[in-house]
Amino acid sequence: MDDHTTPSRRRRFGLNGPGATIAASLIAGISAVLAATLPNVFAPRHELTATAVAVAAPSATATGSAELAPIPTPYVPNLTHGAFTLCASTDAEGTDFTDSVLKFTSQQPTQEGAVLAGFFEWRDRNAFLGREHFTATYVASSKHLFIEGKTIENVSGTLAVGSFSAKVSDDGRRLTEGTWGSTPGELHGVPGQWEARR
Question: What is the distance between the alpha carbons of residues 37 and 33, in angstroms, rounded to a whole number?
Fold first, then answer.
């Protein structure tokens, strides 16, 4: 190889002059293309991996370990409509409370049934005795109602706060198999039996 061809090759393939400009342009173009396309090339692979993991792992809902399906509220008749009139309601001493009134003023659903509040207006042969305010629990599975007296607006002075239970009919119009007795920590009352309807 003579000395005349070497400089020519150096100029032809060297990074000087127009060749350097073209090479720089090509490198810049390739870098721009790679910068624009590489994220898109790897994104589907990442999404595929995430999808595969999601499919492979059982959902928390399916296993019941995290998110539980809502528990349906059991059917509870609305006891706040109107008022109940007591019938066949006497205590162990023979006092007749027939025609006394039972009124539920509020009712809130629970997973077991409902919680309620209200009052009795007690009467003895149509003579008004007083008003007893209470809270109550209804258990839907057994259709039983449990009432706990809280306070008494006592007109006659003969009433004591009591504990009551009864069974609620399917249509919610009758309370049957009712009993009552004393409440712990309160004035002793006379036990009795009662029913009511509306």
Answer: 6
**What is the pLDDT at residue 76?**
93
84-197 CATH, one of 2.40.128, 3.10.590, 2.30.29, 1.20.1300 = 2.40.128
Helical residues (DSSP H) of 5-119, grouped into ranges: 5-13, 18-56, 60-63
Whether the predicted model's global pTM rises above the 0.70 cut: no
Report the alpha-carbon angle 188-120-165, nearest 5: 65
User: Side chain identity at 15, as an amino acid letter?
Assistant: L
Give exposure, 3-40, as e/b (b: 16+ Cβ within 10 Å): eeeeeeeeeeeeeeeeeeeeeeeeeeeeeeeeeeeeee
d(CA 29, CA 114): 74
Query: Average pLDDT per run of 10 along the chain, which is 198 residues long?
Result: 47 52 62 59 49 45 62 88 95 93 97 97 90 97 97 84 96 96 75 96
Residue whose C-alpha is closest to residue 94's, from 197, 195, 193, 196: 193
